[in-house]
Amino acid sequence: MAKELNEFLSNITVTSDENVDTDLIGLIKEGENSGVEFKTTMRYDMRENKVNKKLEEVILKTIAAFSNAEGGTLVMGVDDDQNIIGLENDYRTLKNGTKDEFELHLRNLVNNAYGVEFATNSLTVLFPEVEDTEICTVEIKQGLKPLYSEVSDKNGNKSKKFYVRSGNSSQEIDITEVASYVNQRFE
After folding, report:
1. Do 57 and 21 meet the contact criterion of CB atoms below 8 Å apart?
2. How confident is the chain (187 residues) per 10-residue block, as mean pLDDT?
């Protein structure tokens, strides 16, 4: 499935808009799995109606989990029930509200968390339209080295965590198991 998805995404620029729409709708209808994750927004909290930096941490955790496993695709602007929400809520949180600004913000988050080399070589960011609504797909390659995510607890204390994909979710690996996983996965 992941190979088929990667093949699809690498050919996305040479297919017609109609095929992209049909293929992406099919991918979305299949739901989340070990190679696909949906996020409604990158930073806009739909419940609180404001920017929530914790959501950006969740995006970064998901990117790391895919990289630490077999790679995959993060789809933003789609909720867990496969509804196409779009990016307008996130766009409104940015100065000019454009997809270029959205991508720049996303890449800056990734650059700061995992470095420019990773952001440049391991991510492909696209903005396809589905049902006349713009969404964002981020294809994450299988990583060559482990990625650790800095997360904040409810008191604002930061710590490094290690995440991988497990089925349709990103899971933290217990500190006692990280060395073994890294040794097996990144030989």
Report:
1. no
2. 54 46 82 95 96 95 97 96 95 94 96 95 95 95 95 89 94 94 92
Q: How far is CA 56 from the centre of its chain?
A: 10
Q: Which CATH class is domain 2-185?
A: alpha beta
Q: Distance between CA 184 and CA 46 in Å, rounded?
A: 39
Q: How many CB atoms lie within 10 A of CB 140?
A: 28
Number of helices followed by number of strands (H, E) in the chain:
7, 12
- pTM of the shown model: 0.86
Helix pair 99-114, 53-68: axis angle to 10 deg = 60
Cα(179)–Cα(177) distance, integer angstroms:
6
Residue ranges of the domains in the chain? 2-185
